[in-house]
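User: Please predict the structure of the protein below. I'd like the answer in C-alpha cell form so I can feed it into my own downstream comparison script.

Assistant: Understood. Taking the following sequence of 224 residues as input:
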Amino acid sequence: MEQLLQSVKIGINEKIYVKDPESSDLGKRIVEQSILMIDEMGFESFTFKKLGIKIGSNESSIYRYFENKHKLLLYLTSWYWGWLEYQLVFATNSIADPWHKLEKAIEIVTKNTVEDSSFSHINEVLLNKIVINEYSKSYLTKEVDTENKEGYFVIYKRLVNRLTKMIEGVNDTYRFPSSLASTILEGSLHQHFLKDHFSSLTDCHENGDPTQYFTHLVVNSLKV
C-alpha cells in the first residue's frame, strides 16, 4: 500500500485554493508549516502574517495560494479526509466478507494516526490532531450551505457514503445507515478529543480505544 500511496495525489476541490500548493516548493512549505503552527498555537491565533515570518516569505505570497485562513483550514481538512479515504479503500478492497470489511473500515477511520512517509511535507499525526480540535470550525459558519453547494465537503461526504454502503452490505434492513456512518466519523473525533481533554466523560481510555467502542456500537446496532 505504501508504494501505491507514493504515486497518489489527493484531489482537492480547486475552488478552495487560488493556486495549487502542491505545484511549488513554496506551496508545500505553506502547507507544511501551517500544520505545525496551527497544532502549536491553535487556529484562532494562527495568521498568515505569522506564517509568512515563519517561512521567510511575504504575507502576500501566501494569499496567492489561499484567499484566507478559513480556506486553508478547508484545504487541510479536505486533504486529511482524502488521505483517510485512500487508506480505507486500499485496506478493504480485497476483503469479500461484509462484516470483516466493515470492521476493517471502522478500524481505519477511528484508530490513532501514524505518520505516512509517502507525503514528506505533511505530518499526518499533527494534521489528525488539527482535525480533532479544529474540523468543526470549517463548517460551523454562516457560509456552510453555499460552500457545501460548491463542493467544499465532497471528500468527507464521499467517505461517509463509503461507510454507508458497507453498513448496508451487512444489514440492508437497517433504517439509519447514513446516520450511523456519519456518527462513526464525527464520534471518533469527539472521543479522541474527550480522551485528551475531558477524560472523565469517556470510557475509551479504560475499556478500550475508540475503535473498540465504535466496533461494539456498530455490531450491536446491525444485529439482525
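That's the full C-alpha cell string. The mean pLDDT is 94.
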